[in-house]
Design a protein that fits this description.
By secondary structure, the protein is mainly α. Helix 1 runs antiparallel to helix 2. The protein is globular, with a radius of gyration of 16 Å. The mean pLDDT is 82.
Length: 109
């Protein structure tokens, strides 16, 4: 949990950090009462996420890209609830990107 939030501070643009932090907090809160098998999978997936962020932090000088795409197989393996949540997160991040892009434009553009 702390590693995710720490990496968000180092890697995510400020305009996406709040969204990312809120998502992490919600997910960890939702899995407090998960069974042992679910916890193992949950922790493994969040560890992979942190590894990706760490790799991207190290490569930040070469690319501004954050995150990675799901493969079609990964997406299909998600539950309906996870797919809905993924879509909400995708839309929120696009809205935030659009707000930031609009804010950065000068009135003459």
């Amino acid at each position: 949990y702390k590693r995710c939030l720490s990496l968000h501070k180092k890697v995510l643009p400020q305009n996406l950090r709040g969204l990312g932090d809120a998502y992490v907090k919600e997910e960890f809160r939702r899995h407090k009462r998960a069974n042992e098998a679910q916890v193992r999978v949950f922790v493994a997936e969040w560890s992979k996420y942190c590894d990706v962020l760490e790799d991207q932090r190290k490569a930040a000088a070469q690319s501004a890209r954050i995150g990675q795409n799901l493969t079609p197989e990964e997406f299909e393996s998600l539950s309906d609830e996870q797919k809905e949540q993924f879509e909400r997160l995708r839309l929120e991040s696009l809205e935030e990107k659009n707000r930031t892009t609009t804010t950065k434009k000068s009135p003459n553009q």
